[in-house]
Amino acid sequence: MALNRVLVANRGEIALRIVRAARALGIETVLAASAADAQSLAAREADRTVIIGPASAKRSYLNARLVVHAAKATDCDGLHPGYGFLSERAELAALCEEEGIAFVGPRAESIERVGGKIAARELAASVGVPLVQGSGRIGSAEEALRIAEQIGYPVVTKASAGGGGRGMVVVRDAGSLRTAFERASLEAMEAFGDGTLFLEHYVDRARHIEVQAVGDGVGTVVQFAERDCSIQRRYQKMVEEAPAAILPEEVRLGLHQSAVHLLSSIRYRNAGTVEFLYDVDQQKFFFIEVNARIQVEHPVSEAICSVDLIQMQLRIAGGESLPLLQSQVVPRGHAIEVRIIAEDPERDFSPSPGRITRWRPPQGEGIRLDTAMTEGALVSPHYDSMIGKLIVWGRDRTKAIERLAAALGQFSIEGIKTNLPLLRYIVDHPDFKGNRITTRWLEQVLLPAYRNQTGA
Amino acid sequence: MGKITPRDVEALVELFDQSDWDDLHVELDDFCLTLSKRAGAAVERISRPAATESGSAPVATSKQERVQVASSLVEQGRAAVAIPDGWVAVRAPNLGTFYRSAKPDSPPFVEPGQEVHSDTQVCLIEVMKLFTAVNAGVHGIVRQVCIADGEMVEHDQPLFIIEPRS
To answer: What are the residue numbers of the active site of A?
Structure first.
């Protein structure tokens, strides 16, 4: 049953991470790469690389049939989708199931069950997981007005078909609801081809906290503690920590139980994350959504729980049961991850692709760098601009922050613009050190201060 | 060291062909040549079509073809066949299975020596039972079929070599 050869249907650091995790387990790897990634580090380390299509993601990494064909043609018995791209497309999981290829992730039906936000909310409600007061699908601005009165202002519109901030508009009073609703619906239509919205109560001081879990597919789910990912810009995470130091112990327990309960109710298989909104003032958490994949920020959970989640994914996909009991998961210390992004924070985060002429990452105890970049590597303009993840571990949050500050200070990248200066500024900020942040802190407090300081 | 000429490559191939070596790897400045007699061996990524077409050795019949195979070095790891000056390759639009005919028992769409026009269908590329017709894209004579029927091809891999006619 154990996997013999796995197709890696992704690129960048996660492709490399999967190749190495597979190798550690004695599993061969075939990398399905686009023409732009023929020379990537993952391509060099994989046992074999096949070029599936041109640079355009739509004609390579986003084509489920192409990826599955590559897996079949190269005799792979497993397929790891990584994150992003096709990772949460039920179509890919279903194609793998039809072809007898083990999909390293949940069953197609589970992806469908939690994929749409409205369906996921219904699922959460059915198992008693707290939800932010909200609505079902809303057909018109009139209906929205009526429902907003019931929920109570402020409210936020959300797109039924997707996330990433598109279709989200905060409305503080009835007077501005109609315009906001129409704008949000248009935005959702443009982004997802579906303008359907729902409304939610808006939490003013919120933190984004998520629980990492892994299920065996037959009803047992183990959680690997929670992460605090409140430092976001336009709903894109930039700094992630584990554990969420803000949580009172009883809230943390409730959070973990809710996540496990939700996922075990659908006999969830493999790695997944349940995201919650935490209301700092009321000390209450509310379900947001399930991410049915491994996430970018999984290393902070690994760092405090001393596990390798990618290896665990591969083993479960190979038919093994969960390698450890809940009681054996004992989080220790504090971990922080920062995303190194090839964007210029001084020019409104415009992407900065190009050749890396100098790449001197920090090294030392408690420092981990997940990247596929090297000196001389090209940051492609075709794909996401994240070029690495710096992860530090310390025995407590203060120690971790010290280490992170030192590591960021040592990190030197030339040839392209990155967000390193901004990350250094964040880590040095008293609000960050004092853990007094919310999901809007980066945009509303930090960035204006940063721009002032840099004169940008 | 001067520039590597096709003659040098031919000599290396000849030497390798007559030797009892399984593999030969040469690297000089920006030139890199890998030859293998093991089917689907380390050179797979580079010279797959040739290796699979000829069974064991990546060396085809005529000397000219040998040179083409030999210079399949190519640091891109994609272009499997060197194309003589003025000739053009019909390349795979994406990864898939290469089929020379519409059905297993029907004749190939084209044969070497045949004249094709830009809209002449030359093969099918199949991805999970979806077949895409590939046209010659140029008027000329088919000079070489680079891939065996039913083989997997990668994006941009040469499928046919055509000598254009004006």
So the answer is: 293
Query: Among residues A346, A364, A344, which one has the least CA distance to residue A418?
Result: A344
Q: Is A282 helix (H, G, I), strand (E, B) or coil?
A: coil
**Going residue by residue through chain A (456 aa), what tens digit of pLDDT does each one get?**
799 999 999 999 999 999 999 999 999 999 999 999 999 999 999 999 999 999 999 999 999 999 999 999 999 999 999 999 999 999 999 999 999 999 999 999 999 999 887 789 899 999 999 998 888 889 899 999 999 999 889 999 999 887 767 889 999 999 999 999 999 999 998 888 889 999 989 998 999 999 999 999 999 999 999 999 999 998 899 999 999 999 999 999 999 999 999 999 999 999 999 999 999 998 999 999 999 999 999 999 999 999 999 999 999 999 999 999 999 999 999 999 999 999 999 999 999 999 999 999 999 999 999 999 999 999 999 999 999 999 999 999 999 999 999 999 999 999 999 999 999 999 999 999 999 999 999 999 999 999 998 875
Considering only the beta carbons, identify the residue of A48, A53, A60 that sits closest to B45. Answer: A48
In chain B, which residue's Cα lies nearest the Cα of A56? B94
**A35 contacts B95? CB cut-off 8 A:** no
Structure tokens at A156: 């936020």
Q: Which helix (H) or strand (E) holds B123?
A: strand B121-127
Q: Are B95 and A95 an interchain contact pair (Cβ–Cβ within 8 Å)? A: no
> In B, which residues are within 8 Å of A59 by CB distance?
94
C-alpha A279/C-alpha A275 separation (Å) is: 13
- Within 8 A of B156 by CB-CB distance, chain A residues are 35, 51, 54
Are A230 and A205 in contact, with CB atoms under 8 Å apart? Answer: no
